[in-house]
Every structure is written in structure tokens, then in C-alpha cells.
Amino acid sequence: MLKGTIAKILEKPFTSYLLLIIMLTIMLAPIIFTAFTSFKPRAETFRWPPTYFPEEPTLQAYHEVLFRSPMVRHLFNSLVVSFGTTAIVLIGGLFSAYGLSQYAFKGSKIVLLIFIATRIVPPISLLVPFYIIMSFLHLLNTYFCLMIVNTFLWYPFAIWMLKSFFDQFPRTLIDSAIVDGCTRTGAFLRIVVPVSAVGIAAVAIITFLWTWNEFLFGMIFTNTREVQPITVGAHYFVGDELVQWDTIAATAIFTALPGLLFFSIAQRAIVRGLTAGAVKE
To answer: Three-state DSSP class for 238?
Structure first.
């Protein structure tokens, strides 16, 4: 009887919407509270019990973040590192995954397993080896250092994801393009890449966001504000005796915008890539 009642409730359309609203509320609650906190005066952020909505909304925190702190520089640093890492991972990952997928050789599966095996080791255990290598190469406190480290972290995932898309790609389309006069590289760039835009955009989004949110390596391998990413630079507002919660909240909202912008651009690239690859000129 009880199982039948539960089954009927779960079959109702409103149940799915109710569960969706509950989960969405749980996920968005910290973000919404952070957004409200960014508009509070500093004194109000220390009030107990805390206020959920700002009683006297102000843009003072955003003004301090943009014009009276080095956050703009940290934001630029994160953009350079994130876009650079995404470009390296995509360019290298596309050709590597395509070769492993469409032109398999003896031992290609072992190579793929080796790529995945590099992610079995916890990244934190690689701090000392990476630090020694970067110090020997005189790359500490540089953009290139952070790009190399983040490429090591996300490159295996990119190959694994892209290969799964290329495995499902119709081989007949590639053969037809070669018969029509395309080289193997031309068929890859003109046929495979546009049609696989969904997978490529997904890898680009994931790589960009993971690199954007990376903190540990950025903190260890950089020591000046000219190179430190925004995740490390946000500690500018954490003092020995006072934590400026309003400016930290404003920084969090401010730094979320580039990720949302990049996601929207990648979404448009998916549509353009699909239409470009589906129509033969």
C-alpha cells in the first residue's frame, strides 16, 4: 500500500518540478547569499544574527574591488592563464585524441591508459617535484609555469573526452573527404572539427573553468601580484584581525562573470560549428 502511494506520487508531473526546485534552491542559496552580502555595508556583514537582505544596499564593495585593490590585475592574470591553458589543451588534445581514435596503432590503448594513469596520482603530491622542475627551468612566478601545471592536470581528461566523441564519428565522412581531394589533416580540420563542435566546446568549457578555479598551484608557484591568479589574489581582503566579507563577496561575484561569458560564447560556437559542419559547400 505504501509503495503504491509513493509510486503514484513520483509519477505526478509536479513531483519532478518540486524536486528540481528543492535541489536548485540548495545549490543557489550560497551564491544568492554571497550576492546579497556584496551589497551590504561592511558593518552590516558583522551583525549577529546576520541579515539575509541588505538593509542599506551599497556599491561600495564593488568600488573598492575595482578601483582600490589589485583585483583587476589578478583578474587579468587568471584570464591569461585560463585562455592559454585552454588553447594548449585543445590544440594538443584534438590531434592526440583524433590520432588515438581514428588511426589506432599497436600500443595505442596503452598510451591512452598512461594518459589516464597520470591522474591517479593526487595533484598535491606533485607539488615538490613540480616546484623543483620549475625552479630548475627558472619558470617560477611566470604565466608559463601555471599553464604547464594546469595543462598537466587537465590534458588527460581532454584526450579521454575528445576521443569518446571521435570514436562515434562516422568514418565514411572522413573517407569521402579524402576521396574528394582533402588531405588527412584537411579532412580533420574541415569535417571532423566543425561537426564535433559540441564535444570540443564541452572540453573548452571544462578546461577553462577548472583552470579558472585552481588555487593550490597558483598559491605555491607565484609570489607577486603581477602573476597571481584571482583565486590567490582574493586573500588580499583577509587580514590578521579582520576579514572584509563585503569585498570578498563582491570579488566572488565579479570573478564569476568571465566564466559565464566564456560559457555563453562557447554555447554560440556549438551552434555555428554544427551548421558549418552539416552543410557541404
So the answer is: strand
3-state helix, strand, coil in the chain (%, to 5): 75, 0, 25
Contacts of 165 by beta carbon, 8 Å cutoff, 6+ apart:
97, 196, 198, 199, 200
In eight-state DSSP terms, residue 120 is: T
The model carries a pTM of 0.79
Q: Where are the beta strands (DSSP E) in 52-192?
A: none
d(CA 237, CA 219): 15
C-alpha cell at 28: 543557489
- The structural domains of the chain, ordered by start, are 73-278 (1.10.3720.10)
Taking the C-alpha atoms of residue 68 and residue 41, their distance in angstroms, rounded to an integer, is 16
pLDDT in tens, the chain (281 residues): 555 666 666 666 777 778 888 888 888 888 888 888 888 888 878 878 878 888 888 888 888 888 888 888 888 999 999 999 999 999 999 998 888 888 877 877 888 888 888 878 888 888 899 999 999 999 999 999 999 999 998 898 888 888 888 888 888 888 888 887 778 888 888 888 888 877 788 888 888 888 988 888 988 898 888 898 988 887 777 766 677 888 888 888 888 877 777 777 766 655 554 444 444 44
Q: Which amino acid is at 144?
A: F
Q: How many CB atoms lie within 10 A of CB 56?
A: 9
All cell numbers assigned to 186: 584537411
